[in-house]
Amino acid sequence: MKKVILTLAILAFLSGFSFAQEQTSFLKLKGIKGDLGLSWDRYQNMSLDWMKARTAQDGAFTDDLRNMEESEIFYSSLGGNIGTQLLFTAPSLGNEKFIPEVRLGLSMTLGKEAIVDYTNSSFNFDPYSTSSTDYNSLMYCFVENETRVNAEVVWRVGDQKKVTFYGGLGTNISASFDNDLFVFDDYYNNRTFAGNNFEAGNGFNSTESVFKGKSVFYQRLYIPIGLDLKMFKHLQGTIEYKLGGGLEEVVGGAVSTFRTGEFNFGMRLNIAQNNTTSILDYLR
After folding, report:
1. How deeply is 260 buried, as exposed, middle or buried, from its count of CB atoms within 10 A (0-12, 13-18, 19+)?
2. Kind of pairing between the strands at 180-194 and 197-212
3. How far is the C-alpha of 155 from the C-alpha of 26, rounded, in Å?
4. Sequence ranges of the domains in the chain
5. Model pLDDT, residue 120
6. What integer pLDDT is reported at residue 3 of this predicted model?
7. What pLDDT is stored for residue 90 in this prediction?
8. Number of Cβ atoms within 10 Å of the Cβ of 13
9. Mean pLDDT, to the nearest integer, of 35-62?
10. Angle at alpha carbon of residue 226, lines to 93 and 218, rounded to 5°
């Protein structure tokens, strides 16, 4: 089935490329764009089993959760995003108001973290009491760096004005390698044992373990929307938001779905000159 889908996709791409070659303005380079921001994937379920599925040494780390409760489960993995795209003109198909643009790019999501935290605690604020304050926390943090290849088609309104709005459709494929699972085991007790008696004290113990994670492959489909603000004749500032969904496959594991999002600030350098006056033109 996968081979059939791949064959159809290749045929569709080649037929579309052949048709587009007949258009004189197809994929003519018009600029380059760079972005910085945040990227996240939100899952319907995230648990210790979710962490185990991503870890090559799942039997080696602490998973005894007796008498412990879920504390912090964000159901999302979040990381910093950096990327660049080449911008191309595309056939207008007879509509001059909406200017189509094809974008091909490469980006990285760095330090992407997913966290599951379990705790067990009993509190007594009197350090001289016979009962003590005990706090135990187990935090599992899966960290990955993801490399993405993306393609987008957007339609721009006001392409040569001070403010340009756009929206469209995009997709990316990506993979993360050399991932790690960090396990933080923290324990606190407000009394120490001296001789035959308990005395007031501050006992804190923390351990950190690192386990090798499995590689993960992703595919996403999303809607990019944003605006460009003219700064100089060839330069625009950009704000962009992406929202969609995706599939992931852990190597040696299952396939699952998630919702995805991205928020970026950036700069856009255009080959064509925009002669519309902006406030920054007066500062030169």
Report:
1. buried
2. antiparallel
3. 15
4. 2-283
5. 74
6. 45
7. 84
8. 10
9. 84
10. 90
Angle at 125 between CA 120 and CA 131, to 5 degrees: 70
Distance in angstroms (rounded) separating the CA atoms of residues 95 and 89 = 14
Cβ neighbours around 236 below 10 Å, total: 22
Q: Token pair of 30, please?
A: 């018009």
Counting Cβ atoms within 10 Å, is residue 16 exposed (0-12), middle (13-18) or buried (19+)? exposed
Per-chain mean pLDDT for the chain: 80
For residue 12, what pLDDT is reported? 44
105, pLDDT greater than 90: yes
Considering only CA atoms, which of 210, 94, 189, 205 is closest in space to residue 142? 210
Tally DSSP H helices, then E strands, for the chain.
Answer: 2, 10
pTM score, two decimals? Answer: 0.78
The structure tokens listed for 85 are 């795209």
Q: Which residues contact 275 (CB under 8 A, 6 or more apart)?
A: 160, 233
Q: Given its phi and psi angles, is residue 25 left (phi above 0), alpha (psi -120 to 50 degrees) or beta? A: alpha
Beta strands in 10-68 (DSSP E): 29-42
Q: Which of 172, 177, 179 is nearest to 221 (CA)?
A: 172
**Spatial CA neighbour of 93 closest among 10, 22, 185:** 22
Q: Is the pLDDT of residue 112 over 70?
A: yes
**Single-letter residue type at 267:** M
pLDDT reading at 24 higher than 70: no
**DSSP assignment of 259-274, as one string?**
EEEEEEEEEEEESS--
What secondary structure letter does DSSP report for 226? Answer: E
| Paired tokens of 176 | 């993360």
Question: Do the beta carbons of residue 38 and residue 81 sit within 8 Å?
Answer: yes
End-to-end, the C-alpha distance of the chain in Å comes to 59
